[in-house]
Amino acid sequence: MRRVLVLCLAAPLLACRGSSPEPTPDPAPRPAGASVLLVTIDTLRADHLGAYGYPRLVSPHMDALARQGALFEQAYTYWPKTRGSFVMMMTGRRPSQNGYSKTHPGVVGFNPTIASVLQQAGYRTAASVDNPNVARVHGYARGFDTYRETWEEPALDTEWDRTRAISADGIRFLGSARSGVPFFLWLHYVNPHAPYAPPPPWDTKFPAPSGGPRLPIVESLHGGIPKKWALPGKQRLAEYVALYDGEVAAVDDELGRVLGALAASTVKDETLVVVTSDHGESLGEHDYYFDHGENLFDPSLRIPLIVVLPGAPSGVRNAELVSTLDLMPTLLDAAQVSYPPDLAGASLLPAVRGRNGPARERLFAQNEHHLSAGLGARFKLVATPEGQKTRHALYDRHADPGETRDVGRAAPETLRTERRELELFLERADREWAKTRPLLGEGGGEPKLSAAACEQLRALGYVQKCAP
């Protein structure tokens, strides 16, 4: 029987505005590869899942999924902010290759995407998403037969309404899927993105431990509880962490509904399932509260990655360094579709099958503040521009998992080696940009969003105000 890939990551599911994704007529000829279910969960930290050692029972469905397949213990996003993260994930290329930047803040048209490649190969493609950062105006809908932007529907008034609608889309799609007719389905949940406001019963499921210092309410994201996320009577960090965990538990329950529909479908033995996120979240580490992307520390970079491939071993735990850039080659490998040229990642299917994976010495990451980092099994080097100079900080991730002490002076040889590796990476990026810039043309800039999309971004803290 042909196998289908299901991927669970923090991401969206395609559907036309105001409509649910529905199967399209059978393609001909039918592709030979697996189907793919991709679930992405926005802002999800790996270390807040039981499968990664978290003591609270917040993620029973994701934990069970990990036991069924492969869990990647050292998975990282390339770009710790939603819009850029999904550009990297969906194109399998770095910014210097795909053209992502402040002037082109979306999926630039010359890039093949997972959806466009699979659609061309004869796959049915659908997505249902809840985060205007992945709106169709930014290019993310390309290659999808249907792309549902849940925030555009007035009837879906709350985040929880949209979450339930995304699950319903997935359940409906999987229930109508047919064996031998491959598909790519992408579901993106915005939970547990701030503000942390889980629905009942999850809002009181995890009481905060008593005690602990009271933090001030501040205007910025540093020094205390950000005013825009502050809740009446709550000034202790543990109270907000408990609500974050409630949001994780709520979306885990929704994921359970989708996985139940898959288990009851005729395609359960043909589908690869992957669960992951676009980035993590800083919960007070480095004096940075309830946000992500400003720095390149692990709370923002490290993500869960769980992959279940029918017929592959269960209970696999892989400690190799893997990246969101590996998603595209992994899915295309499962679909038995040829890769576009110049992908930056590698297929993880060998590792899912219990064999060796990419076996990298280090990964790289960047952000919109021009920081760059190289991280290996033990050390991480972060380069931060400061005027005309760049400050390099070296962290020993074994001795100091919180990444609080710069050990560059105490380990000068390691610092030299890591600096050189990062410099070589950035030099390669400069050469790639020289080839990419001519492909960008004269366009670019921030496309105009709908009023509903702007209000949703304001609620999520991405913009301060919307035009009347």
Structural notes for this entry:
This protein has 468 residues and is α/β, with parallel strands linked by helices. The protein has a single domain (6-360, 440-459), classed as 3-Layer(aba) Sandwich (Alkaline Phosphatase, subunit A). Helices cover 28% and strands 19% of the residues. The chain has helices at 60-68, 82-91, 95-98, 114-120, 159-176, 237-263, 298-301, 327-335, 349-352, 412-440, 451-459; strands spanning 6-7, 35-41, 70-76, 124-129, 146-149, 183-189, 217-218, 225-226, 271-276, 282-283, 289-291, 302-303, 305-308, 316-323, 362-366, 372-376, 379-386, 389-396. Helix 5 packs parallel to helix 6 (237-263). It is globular and about 60 Å long.
Number of domains: 1
So, the CATH homologous superfamily? Answer: Alkaline Phosphatase, subunit A
Low-confidence stretches: 1-20
**Named CATH topology:** Alkaline Phosphatase, subunit A
- Which H/E pattern describes the elements? EEHEHHHEEHEEEHEEEHEEEHHEEEEHH
Helix percentage range: 25-40%
Report the count of strand segments: 18
Helical run tally: 11
Mean pLDDT: 91
CATH class, please? Alpha Beta
